[in-house]
Specification:
about 110 residues; mainly alpha; 4 helices; about 60% helix; extended; DUF3135 domain-containing protein
Length: about 110
């Protein structure tokens, strides 16, 4: 796995060649995921996909950083909850209701083929 360049190199890359910086982010992320256990790889890929979606919706670098920070804070809260009160993670369960179609009324056009 390659080493992360220095801050100054990353800054220069962000200013002069943002595509190279993005390629570096993706390649290093893939290397980390590939070194993880096979059981964790799907979860890490899902997390990476979510991060990519957040990045894609950012309006500018500062906005993107704020959204990523918000995502990280949510993950840290959930992690703390899992450590301190794991029983609360399954506290709220949804009630699944069967879907039923409304009855056809007389003013509904029929679907007969002619």
């Amino acid at each position: 796995m390659q080493d992360l360049p220095s801050f100054d190199e990353l800054k220069a890359m962000a200013e002069k060649d943002p595509q190279a910086l993005e390629a570096l982010r993706i390649s290093m992320s893939e290397a980390i995921i590939n070194r993880a256990s096979p059981a964790m790889q799907p979860r890490l890929r899902a997390q990476m996909s979510h991060i990519n979606q957040v990045i894609a919706t950012g309006k500018n670098p500062n906005h993107t950083n704020m959204m990523l920070m918000s995502e990280l804070q949510q993950q840290l809260k959930r992690f703390a909850q899992a450590l301190n009160a794991p029983e609360t993670l399954t506290e709220h369960e949804a009630k699944v209701m069967p879907f039923s179609r409304p009855e056809a009324s007389d003013d509904t056009p029929s679907r007969t083929s002619e």
